Amino acid sequence: MSPKIVVVAVSLVLGFGGIAAAHHSNAAYDLDHPQTMEGTVKTVNWTNPHITFVIEKKDVKSGEPPSTWVFEVSSPGVLTRSGWTKRSLQPGDHAVFRYAPLRDGSPGGFLQKVTLPSGQELTYTLMPGEQ
Amino acid sequence: MNTVAKKLVIVCCAAALVEMFAVSRALAELPDFGGVWIPDVKDQKRQETANVPPWKPDILPQIQHMVAEEKAGRPFLVLSHCLPHGMPSWMLITHNAFELLTTPGRITMLGEVDGNRMRRIYMDGRPHPEDPDLTLHGHSIGHWDGETLVIDTIAIAPQAYIAISEAVGIPNNGDMHILERLHLAKPDVLYDDLEITAPKVLDAAWKTTRIFRRYPERHYEITEGECAQEDLTPGKDQFGNDIFVPNPQGPHGTVHTVK
Description:
The structure holds two protein chains of two kinds.
Chain A: H1 3-13, E1 19-20, E2 35-45, E3 51-57, E4 67-73, H2 76-81, E5 94-101, E6 108-115, E7 121-122
Parallel strand pairs in A: 4-6
Antiparallel strand pairs in A: 2-3, 2-5, 3-4, 5-6, 6-7
Chain B: H1 3-29, E1 35-39, H2 41-50, H3 60-71, H4 89-93, E2 98-103, E3 106-110, E4 118-122, E5 139-145, E6 148-154, E7 161-163, E8 169-171, E9 177-186, E10 189-197, E11 206-213, E12 232-236, E13 242-246, E14 256-257
Parallel strand pairs in B: 4-5
Antiparallel strand pairs in B: 1-2, 1-11, 2-3, 3-4, 5-6, 6-9, 7-8, 9-10, 10-11, 12-13
């Protein structure tokens, strides 16, 4: 079974649907209603065409069960030019994530900004000079 | 080495130096297009509605459907694969940088994100081949018209999209011809005036200008990138060698949107 087929099969099982999308429009995300969540980085996929961060959300106070979120973001080239490195966010890092949520309600979204416990903000822009 | 041979070596070296000097001076007299260029994505967005291609009537419903689907949050995936954007979509909708190299007889554009995103523009006076193989970037020949770089591109694969966004586009379906005039609007602002003729999908030639900017003070470089990396993760083979293996993260390691 090819890697693509494995990925598609797993994604269908988990309800993400569709196909591995390569490089794509971000219309699946609700850019008009950004939200924030707090969590811990589990995995960094610093890859083209898009980077993804897997985040574990565990809120003891609310009593909600732990959940796994996927945040997609632009490409390594764009983030590098915006001052990030592939080590800017590492597994185990705790942070606040601002994101445009997936319209279908899945736990994930398009990452817009990260605020680290130190107060440092990680942002990015496609067009330099606007960051 | 005898005296005659020594003289011959000296003459040859001198000739080579003169030739190098002449070539570098010729290049120096032309406008400097070299460097890393970043697309003006805001202008790309503006043109999605402000400068719509003259789609043929039988193509228009497909476009309207894709626009509606994107608005509804179900974008059509123009780039649902790891092939290069191809021409003219690379120039029209990319969000990533490209690097332009000028060398004698050739201009080369190197892209980002997918490893085979590259345009070779032959400046040595050669014509297009008579029976070219079709490719996603086509066959490009160029020349200078004053301070404007004129590029003529044919032999583009019919599957290459004419895309106005990552969610709206139509394969050119064959016989496309692209004429580009690149010029510096400001020292670090490059305009690419495109005239796209695609008789299978467009009623008339479509003209659009795409804007690219460079930031020499920031010393940007393009980054290496292979689109297929998204489905892979570093791992080991049975001998302990470092290899890439299918990403075990499943949906977490790749991007999934509902089509």
